[in-house]
Every structure is written in C-alpha cells, then in structure tokens.
Amino acid sequence: MRSALGCAALGVLLLAVAGTFDAEPLYVTGSALALLGLGAAAWIRAGAWGAEIHRELTARSVLEEQPLGVRISVTSGRLPLPPGWIDEPLLPEPVRFQAGRRQARVRVEVTFGRRGRRRLAPPALVLRDPFGLAQSVVSGTGTDEVLVLPRLYPVNATAGGGDATPAHARAALIAAAETELDGLREHRPGSPASRIHWPAVARGHGLMERKLISEADSRPLVVVDPRAPSSQDALDGAVRAAASLCVHFARRSGCSLLLPGDRRAHVIEKDLVAWPAAHVRLALIDESTGPSLVAAQNRRGLVVLVAARPLDRPPRGLGRTPGGCILVIPAALPNRRPVLEVAGSQGFLTTRSGAAAAMEAVAG
After folding, report:
1. Which of 98, 134, 265, 301 could be joined to 40 by an S-S link, Cβ 3.0–4.6 Å?
2. Are residues 341 and 207 part of one domain?
C-alpha cells in the first residue's frame, strides 16, 4: 500500500501548495492524485477482505513422471475480486484473472522427475489495481506434502545369450522352489507325521524326519546398497531397479527386501499387501546408511545386490550363497555379459558358486 499512500500524500501536498500560493491548476491535479491513491488502497483492501484461496491434490503419493492433479480455487469476500493473479509454486508463471469475479478456479497436472518427499509452499492470491499503486496478498493455509515413489520398470532377462527380451515373456526370475529338502534329522516330538522319512526308518536308521528349508529363505532376496553413488541419478536409478526387481519377483513367487539400516528383511508375498509400505521406504532412501549383510548371508535362495556405484564383486559373504548372487550396478563390466537389465542398470553373476541355480533362476 505504500505506493497508494504515497500518491495520496503527493495529492495532499499539491492541494496544500495550491492553497498557499493560490495556484488553481494544482487543485485538480492534487485532488486527482489524492482520490486515486486513497481509492486504489480502499478498493484493494476491501476486495481482499474475506477472500480465500485453497489447493486440493488428487493424491498424496504419486509415481515418478505420473501426472498429479491439482485444483486451486479462489473465493471472494463481501465484494467481487479486484484484478490480480494466482501465484502457485507448482506453476511456471502466475495465472491472471479478470476483476469482478466471485470465484476463480485453476486445474493443472504436474509431474515430478525424482523420488522423495516434496513439501509444497501454500499458494497465494495477489490483488493489485491496474496502476500498480496498491497490492494485497492472501496466502493459503498450511503446507501440502507429496510423496514421490520410484517408478517401476520391466525386467529384461538376457541370460542364455541373444537380445534382451522382457522377463515376463521368458521364464520367471525366481530362486529354486518354495520349499526344498535340506537333509534329515532325528524326529522331534510334536513334528508332523508327514515329515517322517519312512525309507530311513525301513533301513533301520531310527525315526528320522525331513528337514525343510523355510519358504522365506528360499525366495529371492533384494539387497539395496545406496552408499557412495557416483551421482544422484545413479542413486535414483538403483532405487528404481530395486523396486522393479521386488515387484517382479513378488508377483511370481514372493521375495524379501533388505533395506539400509534394517537387520531383518521385509517379506513381500504374491498378493503384494506389504509392497506399499516397502515402496514408501524405497522412496525415502538416502546414501548415508548401508545394508546389514548379516541377514543376506547363508541364504538358500537367490541374492540380488543392487548398488548405486560400480562394483566388480559383491561384499564378502554374499558371493558364496547356495542360490547364487547377482550384482546389479549402473555400469557395465568389461568382458562380462549381463544376465538382466532393469531401469538402466545391469545385473552380473558374481562367482561360479551357485551359478547354475542363479542361471536357472534368471533364464528359467
């Protein structure tokens, strides 16, 4: 309002000069400036009285590059709105509207290119007279928050040579069977009779029972290592690759996901009930913490280590897993053919130990 008050003060000053020196032409100019300044200030102040601006989001979470609907509504108070515009941080430039309206609405679709939490500053309604003398800003209430989830990509299996083809058209990338025999042991009281190994009893070895591998231990395990990424794009690519692999494995046989800072892996069944919570955790991953590899050692199933930096070998203890280990990195390894490709990353078999099981899991 400073410009409007300054204009009015200038008009009053001219009126005082006109009265002092009896300069009649200054009366017209002084009166016009005083009325213009006071009128602009009163108009804008009255128009802003009771005016409100609100923003509504169609969702609180959205995938990367997925459109998010945003609706901004403006309502006037007792008087129609003066001229002005809507200042929305999500828009590249303000949206102007004409004076005399009771309501104004703007609908837009925005996309986010990177995962993570986005805090959106409230929109603002800016009212200004045509001469730019008076201005009033009406801010929205509260700060909106949007969680951008990592985008999912198809997993392309390249094992067995030839061009990469979508993995859903090939055999599923699963690790061994859901339940496998892991030897015999003495029968324990309370064990089901279906586990008794009758051939061993017939041979006179006593009452023996089958020792089974747990279903969770035989499923694929995806391990995320976000430490020391070569760039932010590499970190985001690794997270996208991990998310894509989790959904790919889970839809076929279920899988486990070991996140940085966790000592236990999260089990994701085929119904994907546990996937939304894991998806949120993946969206918030940073490079400060690495995974606890104790939970990934000595597993019977396939272990997939997704790293945000180029590596030529997995950490100690992962390369000798019975189900095999695949290293997924955002780079190519010299003289080595990848067994899968996903989200710009490539997966390589790390050692010959468990290579047959891993190749069977990849190529089917």
Report:
1. 134
2. no
DSSP β-ladder status, 124-128 and 266-268 = unpaired
DSSP assigned state of 61? E
Classify residue 196 by its DSSP letter: B
E strand or H helix at 6: helix 2-21
State whether residue 135 is helix, strand or coil.
Answer: strand
Domain ranges, residue 193 = 183-212
175 pLDDT band, cuts 50/70/90, is: very low
Residues contacting residue 273 through CB under 8 Å, at least 6 positions apart: none
321-338 mean pLDDT: 85
pLDDT, residue 23, reads 81
Structure tokens given for 270: 């085929």
Q: Which of 64-68, 205-209, 289-293 has the highest mean pLDDT?
A: 64-68
Taking the C-alpha atoms of residue 193 and residue 187, their distance in angstroms, rounded to an integer, is: 9
pTM of the model: 0.76
Tens digit of each residue's pLDDT (9 = 90 or more) over 251-283:
888 899 999 989 888 999 889 999 999 999 999
Q: Is residue 36 helix, strand or coil?
A: helix
Q: 124-133, 214-223, 249-258, 304-313 — which is least confidently predicted?
A: 214-223
Total domains, the chain: 4
Residues 252 and 299 in one domain: yes
Token output for 199: 């051939």
Encoding tokens for residue 307? Answer: 């790293």
For residues 300 and 296, give the distance between their C-alpha atoms in angstroms, rounded to a whole number: 10
